[in-house]
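A favour, since you know our structure tokens better than I do. Would you make up a two-line entry for one protein for me to read? Write everything out right here, beneath this request.
=====
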Amino acid sequence: MLWFIIGIAILFGVLSSLIKRRTSTFQDDPTANERQIQEEERIKASSWFGGGL
């Protein structure tokens, strides 16, 4: 009975880590996209304000 409980706990841990890994890949893409947009805006602002000086 104890081995059954330990096995279920290990199985639950493995499944939860797999789910977290899948959801984290979906969350990384909007973050990377947002960073790309911010970098492009920074380049535009620096060329706009610093280009004429």
Observations:
- The chain has one helix and no strands.
- The chain has one domain: 1-49.
